[in-house]
From TrEMBL, chain A:
Lineage: Eukaryota, Metamonada, Anaeramoebidae, Anaeramoeba
This protein's UniProt keywords: Nucleus, Protein transport, Repeat, Transport, WD repeat
Keyword tRNA-binding applies: no
Assigned protein family: Belongs to the WD repeat SEC13 family.
Entry-linked SUPFAM superfamilies: WD40 repeat-like
Localization annotation: Nucleus envelope
Annotated WD repeat ranges: 18-50
Domain of life: Eukaryota
Protein name per the record: Nucleoporin seh1
UniProtKB/TrEMBL annotation, chain B:
Pfam families hit by this protein: Nucleopor_Nup85
Alphabetical keyword list: Membrane, mRNA transport, Nuclear pore complex, Nucleus, Protein transport, Translocation, Transport
Subunit structure: Component of the nuclear pore complex (NPC).
Protein name: Nuclear pore complex protein Nup85
UniProt keyword Nucleus, yes or no: yes
Principal location listed in the UniProt entry: nucleus
Domain of life, per lineage: Eukaryota
Membership in a protein family: Belongs to the nucleoporin Nup85 family.
Function summary: Functions as a component of the nuclear pore complex (NPC).
Amino acid sequence: MLLRTNETIENKTLKNFLTSHQYLIHDLQIDPTGTILVSSSSDNCLKFYSNKDSTWKETFTLELEENTNIWKLAWSPSTFGSVIAGVTFQNEVVIISQTFENGKLQWKQQTTVCSLPDSIQKISFSPDELGLVLGVADSSGILHIYHAEDPSQPDTWQKHSEIIVANTCLRAFDWGLQPNYPVMIITAAINRSVKIWKFCEEGLKWESVFNLGIELEVYDIVWSNFVGRDFHLIAISTEEALEIWKIEKLKNNSYQNIEKERIAYFTQINDSIWKLGWNETGNVLASTSNKGIVKLWKSNLLGNWSCISTITGNDDDDDDELELEIEN
Amino acid sequence: MISNSIPKQLRLSVTESINFNWEQSGGLLLFSTQRPILEKTKRLSIKNSSINQLKWDSLILSSTRKFYSQSHGIFLSLQKLSAKLKLEKKQKQSTILNLQLNLNLNERLNKFQSDLVLISRQYRAVLTEYLVSLSQKSKRDPNLVDEANLIGLAVMLWHLCEIIFIDQTVYVTAREPLSNWYLYHFSMNNNSLRQNIFQTNNSRNDKKNKKIQKQNKLMKKQNLNKIDLIQVLQSALVGDFEQVFFFIEQELSEIKKSPNMNKSLIKIIKFIKSELSSCPRDFEISNTSDSVERLKKWQRECQQKIERLPEFNISYDNSISLLIKNWKELLMIFAGDFDVIRQYSQNWIEFLIANVLWIKPNLTIKELPLLVEQCRKEFINTEDTPTNEIIMMILKNSPIKVIRMIETLIASPWLSAHLIDLLYHSKIIDSQKITYNGLDLREHYLIEFCQRLINCNDMFITTSSYLKQCKTVGRSYIELFLKREKINSDNYAKKLINICNKNDLYKSADRIKNTRAIQLLQTNNNVQALIWLISIDPIRRKNVLINRTVDKILKNANDLSDLDILVNSISSVINEKNSSYQSDLFNYLSKYSKITHLFEKGQLQKGAQIIVKLIETRTLPKQFWLTILNDIAKLISLQDEIIFDKHGTFVIMNFLEQITTFEHERETLLSIDNSQIQKIRFLLVKNLGKSLIY
């Protein structure tokens, strides 16, 4: 009797599809419903793909305005329709969304939300509880928050608030949500401070409520979806290790004496993780490192986290011809 | 069936850093990229900008959907049965002195036990049906072979769990159910033959039984190649009488045809045949102890006859000696000879079955764990497969370990979830005592299964039905999964809202309404969008968006008829929730609906009075100034009779002066040119004159 194990035949689970981008893909993002994929590249285009029979097929190419090479993308929550924010190499944040023209919905570059003097490190839309809100972290240590009053109108984007996190580069941030509580943000600056902020309606400002006390440089930080658990899970990649933190859920509207515990610690030797991502239900964590290794992490029934899968790149492949162009 | 194997090691042909993104369906998209955070513009060109899609839940066939629906139906009926029994128990507690009620409850409990067995068999039946379908499809598509094997494994394990955990009250000894289980799942015959055996065991139709038995015989003749005696010895171990008798007949006919037939051999084979014919085979459930006694008696007599039969003790030339030795061993197996049974058992499971059949026929299911240990010791040097380990845990009556091993070794969320649910309702496990991250085990496995199920298209409603049974976190997961549902139509939005309302997820219901409204706004279906927007709970309603939508409608509304459509469409909503609509906008719309109605009836003056009151009380929203002024102008110019009296005309004139004088209010009338304002002024003056005179 053939037994099912955790090993799978390689070809069965891995599909490859070519895009028509002329250059390397900078970023790839899927909308919250999982039906539209968008990719950006230095060819000044965004490519859109739809999901049919579990396969992605290219459906549309949007040529952006001149000098609008987008290197980072983010989708808004599906409540607000299809809205994408993109960061350009000129430190601008642009909005791309669908408009109804000639009897059908078309993708269009709508507006520029902001143009910052310092380089943008990360963008991310907030949970829809706050409305159509976009966070933009820059290298001056400020987290700028922008808000669109009318999601259907691109010209209603304006500055909502900002958090002056540090006077050094703000590397990473993420949104956190617990039902019946204000939306929270966790930030990680290069000066080794990892803080949680909550939004105060009075005064429309953000207040620091909690410090994780991490004394190392943080490269990325991600907050998993809170799906009815008694605690929050936050994954942090530092210069030394990958850490997973468990923070007890908020009770009685109090942010004092919140219990925190580091439940996993994986040392990275001669390598560092630059990106993390939780799956939708927050029980599997993916990471990718400088050495080009993608790993998946999960906990067992006893609560012990371990690496359950590794995906590596093959450096010996001669099929891809790499050309390098550098423009200063 | 969902196979959620996450590959341990994969290699991609890339030369840059790998970036990733999660797919909603539980897969990963991987692509080569450069590190972010570049200070200067750099461009890397590469011949192939490809994306790798890593999926581990991709097998969704039409038969898979059917399987999900069927098993879902069984799952729901089990929950209902269990809930009904709980209710009856509560009633019993409240009237504890009522003996009649107690008696009824005992009957009820017995009935529930038999219902559980029925449900377990229903699960097995749908699994088997799915297995057959997959097996047929795998002949054309080799990718389905793994999945088919997994289902076969699931059927086998489920059957054993049913015997050991669910059905244990029926069987006095382990003999019959275990041997049937082993024969069905591990015999050498093909799938369709096994199916027929299954049908024969369960069918109550005699005619159908006979037909199936005929088919069995035909298939055996067609499918079975020449089997050797060693294989038959192994069949004897597990009580496969049909195989043994078939072989005996085959050998007898061959020997008879042979010119050098050995008379002793023929005599031995005939002797064995007659002995086996008198061997007690089927044990009556109602009278097991007698059946055991009869078997033991037969075994004693058989052993004595073996010792006395001269043909067994004569020495022959080598080949015949060996043959006769094997034939003797065949009979000795049935007679319960330990050494022979041990010699021919290939693994501890076979040895166990043989023990239960021939050495310890009166062994009960409860006594199995000890025998399992003894049998395993006999095969201590042989490596156990993961399947055998799970079988061992089942036989040792360790349901929690079984579930955990199924999760880690087979990775089948469907099997883990449905099995633990059945065991939970059977009171075999108290999953609340064992928790994982705050969830009891049953909920944990149900959630794991739902996370896979939701990745299949159009499975949200089924998934939410499962999640509803998870009291702790089910609701949160429904809320989470709702966010990713693609709402393509009003009907689907309504279905989802219905689910939200049933689960008290009112916020999510409003989110869906908002999403649908925005979708409609994007395609310029403004009236429909407004209907969705105003149906949102006032606490969460976005008045800014509503006002903009109304503006859009008004801009596109060229004549009165467009406004009528708007009012008619939302009038039912306004009427239902009249008291909660405090804003001037909706107040106006409801009044406007009334005004239109009065005008249709010809009650123009009454309608005019309401218009005047709206203007006087300053409750007329800005968006409707132009409309109202145009309406007034039309009424005055088209009607000979006086519609607006002097007071009314004066109010309107005053209003017009105010809105044309103040700059910020004049902006509202930008679309109207001065000549039109002059025209309205003229008409008003004319009307004032008329009203003063008459």
